[in-house]
Amino acid sequence: MKVLIVGAGIGGLTLAQNLRQLGISYEIFERDVDNNARFQGWAIALHTIVDTFLSSLPSDLPDVREATNHLAPLNIPAQFRYYYAGKDDGFGFEVCDYNGSTYQVKNYF
């Protein structure tokens, strides 16, 4: 059996890793020639599904938490940014604390 995977995004690459671990042949098809081939307007954040996602990865891959743990001390607030294609401006949301209360701030830049 050979599985054809359309798209080399997070879903396609995760599927490929799981197929590799199971010994199933696969081939990935991606239309973009590199990661700068077209405007990328969205960023993916796993949040609530991170444990399920990590448990689905093959055990022979490096530990993702350990590989990214150096980012934890930064204590970065939750953010969402959207950039308009072909433009330098956009908008975003940032969760911040002020006097013990949590606010969601909309920023235009």
TrEMBL record:
What keywords are assigned to this protein?
Answer: FAD, Flavoprotein, Monooxygenase, Oxidoreductase
The protein's required cofactor(s) are namely: FAD
Stretch forming the signal peptide: none
Superkingdom classification of source: Eukaryota
Does this entry carry the keyword Flavoprotein?
Answer: yes
In terms of Gene3D superfamilies, this protein maps to: FAD/NAD(P)-binding domain
Note whether Oxidoreductase occurs among the keywords.
Answer: yes
Residue intervals passing through the bilayer: none
One Pfam assignment: NAD_binding_8
Q: What is this protein called?
A: Monooxygenase FAD-binding
Citing just one GO molecular function, the answer is: monooxygenase activity
Entry-linked SUPFAM superfamilies: FAD/NAD(P)-binding domain
